[in-house]
Amino acid sequence: MSRRGTDFAGLSVAIVTPFKDGGKVDVDTLKQQIEFQIAAGTNCLVPCGTTGESPTLTHPEHERVISETIQAVAGRCKVMAGTGSNSTNEAISLSEWAAKEGADATLQVAPYYNKPSQEGFYQHFKAISESVDVPHCIYNIPGRTGKNIEPETIARIAECKNMVMVKEATGSLDQASQVLSLTDLTLLSGDDSLTLPLLSVGGEGVVSVVGNLVPQDMIALVNAFRDGNVAEAQRLHMQLFPLCRDLLGINSNPIPVKAAMRELGRDSGELRLPMVQLTAAELDFLRKTLGTYGLLKEGVAV
Q: What are the binding positions for pyruvate in this chain (predicted)?
């Protein structure tokens, strides 16, 4: 089956939003992180997702981070702007801004908290697709939104124009397989540790958190599998697995990844409430994980 959205295959990185001076958006550090990703060969950057602390960004900040990212990238990789909302009108408004600024696509999280019916999901995504003429990625993460977009609903949404991808973060290979069998959407893993399993059933890549730290390793994993070198892909999966598990397991995203970036000298590590810093025990555990991976040696970034 020929799939839509394959231009976004490979590694997309859900980049953090750096803050400094008590919570101001740190554009200079954002630009440094963008250059780091482009140098690594990352295919697509995803600003203002969960990892970018979008729930705590004001609307002007949200728009600014998207605009600054697009301008800094300057066409050297793709930009998939996080513009989803539990308000359809708000999602359309943010998506219109991203499209106007030159985003290559938008990431549309399932409406959260208000828990719409399956028909409500369909109408939400349909309205976005008809209002904003850029490619869109459906983001299904029931662990955060409170409700699953069922495969049959995703199949209906896939019939809407401009809906070309799905970021699959249900943790279910059965769901992913159903979506792939029912649609021609490009499926991207929304869980770093499940990237290889999802590639094995037909996924095309990952929207990654751990890619903030080691994008080259995630690119190598995807490329190895794509090239038919399954043994190498499995080796990289096992190498990456503890880092993926701990970044997303010891506390809520993006608390651990921002702490890791601070340890590596690449971010202030500032968070916005209600996110708070790791406990001393959690930070010690994270440092051990970074050390085992080879990113830290005696507390110093390698």
A: 51, 207
Q: Answer yes or no: pTM beyond 0.70.
A: yes
In the chain, what are the domains? 6-227 (3.20.20.70)
pLDDT of residue 301 exceeding 90: no
What's the 3-state SS for the chain? CCCECHHHCEEEEECCCCEECCCEECHHHHHHHHHHHHHHCCCEEECCCCCCCHHHCCHHHHHHHHHHHHHHHCCCCEEEEECCCCCHHHHHHHHHHHHHHCCCEEEEECCCCCCCCHHHHHHHHHHHHHHCCCCEEEEECHHHHCCCCCHHHHHHHHCCCCEEEEEECCCCHHHHHHHHHHCCEEEEECCHHHHHHHHHCCCCEEEECHHHCCHHHHHHHHHHHHCCCHHHHHHHHHHHHHHHHHHHHCCCCCHHHHHHHHHCCCCCCCCCCCCCCCCHHHHHHHHHHHHHHCCEECCEEC
Q: What is the dihedral of CA 140, 260, 29, 194, to 10 degrees?
A: -30
**What pLDDT, on a 0 to 100 scale, did the predictor assign at position 298?**
67
Annotated ligand binding at 51? The verdict is yes
pLDDT at 18 over 90: yes
Catalytic residues: 139, 167
| Arithmetic mean of pLDDT, 242-261 | 94
- For the segment 239-257, the average pLDDT, to the nearest whole number, is 94
pLDDT surpassing 80 at residue 1: no
Q: Is the predicted pLDDT of residue 302 greater than 80, yes or no?
A: no
Strand partners, 297: 300
